[in-house]
Every structure is written in structure tokens, then in C-alpha cells.
Amino acid sequence: MRQYSGIGVLDKAMTVLHAVAEKPCVLSDLCERTGLPRATAHRLAVGLEIHQLLSRDDAGVWSLGPGLAKLAAHAADSLAEAASSVLPRLREATEESVQVYRRDGDRRICVASAEPPTGLRDTVPVGAILPMSRGSGAKVLAAWADPATQRALLVDAAYTERQLAEVRRRGWAQSVAEREAGVASISAPIRDATGSVVAAISVSGPVDRIGRRPGVRWAADLLAAADAIHKRL
């Protein structure tokens, strides 16, 4: 479900980057994940290493390189900027971990987060990659995806088309022990200036603390936070 530019060498290089982003690996694993011939995968990985987008240790394990962080430091993300002033207030209101996710193909990426200072937390750092197959954030992003994307996601999803329809009707989604055992969450859509859903905002924490129906406790606060980010966008 990843997008392609039609520029062969660029698309292959991005395939290598995404494969390493999933998990650091040696060359043989990289070839298996990308489907690229060994010589091609090695040539691209070495080129990305020269530009510091990949790095390699003495054991030959490839991982993401420091050049990505340098580039990211100069990137402007209006969603992350809008969320930065809203998430702390939501964290204070709920005393739980809060995050914002953006969909990238068949996965979702945390673009902003705020953690409570004390207590057991559901730590999801910025940049973390999570599946689109389970969890309340995944349900929200899938519920407002285009029909073709939605059909593709449903193949391996823990949720159903009927459940996504219920998410759209209700305006938020919740999950209990779907993404991780012992963790519950509730998520709502974030819309841009045109009204399109561009992200999901979530509250997550231990089931023992927030219960098996987090929506009962946090739906109103979550929807208010989503609206506050929408207005900033």
C-alpha cells in the first residue's frame, strides 16, 4: 500500500529505507524484505549509508542513520505543531498517555505524544510505527480512509467493516488489549481545514486503571482536543 513515484531507483531506495525502519537487519534479511537482488540491495544501502540515511555496525547490521534526524529537524509539520499545545492539556485532564497518529499505507506513525510524569504509562514515542490492523487509532484512521484502502486494511484487521461504520456514526473508537495486552485506548479523528480526516488523537493506558470502556470516561475530552487541533489547522 506504499506509494510509488515511478522513479525506479528512488522507489527502490525508499523500499530499503522502510525495510530497515521496520527493524535493523543484515543484508540477507534486507533482500528478503524488499525482494531486491543482493547486489541491488547492497548498492542502495551503501549509497544511503554514504548520505547518512543508513548506518552499519561491525556485525553488518543496517539501521537508520543520523542523517534522517538532521533532515527531520528542519521539517515543518503543521499537525505536530498544532498538537503540541493541545496534548499537554489532554494529558493533564486524563492523567494518561496521549498521542497523535498519521496513517502511512498499512501502518501508522506517532507524530506527537505526551506522557504523564509519574505512574505506569503506555509509552509511544514520536516516530514509533504501529500496525493499522488493531487498536483504536487504527480503527479511526481506517474508518475514514478511502474505500480501496479500507478494503485492503480489512483483510488482516482485527476490526470489521461493520465496526468501522459504528466508529463513523459514534465519532470515536475504543479498544481493549488489541494492540498490546493490558492496554486500553480511545481515539477520535482529527480533521484539517477542509474537513478531511488527516490523523487520529488517542488516550491510552493500563486497562486496570482506565477500565474496559475508556470511551465512557474520556470521549468528551478527546473530542474537544481533536476539535482544538482542527481549529489550529
Broad structural category: alpha+beta
Q: Please identify, by name, the CATH architecture of the largest domain.
A: 2-Layer Sandwich
Q: What's the rounded overall pLDDT mean?
A: 91
* Superfamily (CATH H level) name of the largest domain: GAF domain
Give the helix proportion (percent range): 40-55%
β content, as a range?
15-25%
CATH topology of the largest domain: Beta-Lactamase
Globally, the shape reads globular
**Strand and helix order:** HHHEEHHHEEEHHHEEEHH
Distance between the termini: 27 Å
The poorly predicted ranges are none
| Spatial order of the strands forming the largest sheet | 5-4-3-8-7-6
Which CATH class of the largest domain is shown?
Alpha Beta
Radius of gyration: 19 Å
Q: What's the total number of strands?
A: 8
Structure description:
Keywords: DNA-binding, Transcription, Transcription regulation. It comes from Dietzia psychralcaliphila. GO terms for molecular function: DNA binding; DNA-binding transcription factor activity. InterPro entries: GAF-like_dom_sf, HTH_MetabolicPath_Reg, Tscrpt_reg_IclR_C, Tscrpt_reg_IclR_N, WH-like_DNA-bd_sf, WH_DNA-bd_sf. This protein is an alpha+beta fold and 233 residues long. The protein folds into two domains: 65 residues, Winged helix-like DNA-binding domain superfamily/Winged helix DNA-binding domain (Arc Repressor Mutant, subunit A); 155 residues, GAF domain (Beta-Lactamase, 2-Layer Sandwich), CATH 3.30.450. Helices cover 46% and strands 21% of the residues. The strands form two sheets. The protein has a six-stranded antiparallel beta sheet, with helices on both faces. The protein has a two-stranded antiparallel sheet with strand order 1-2. Helix 6 packs antiparallel against helix 11. The radius of gyration is 19 Å and the shape is globular. The chain starts with 7 loop residues before the first helix and ends with a helix.
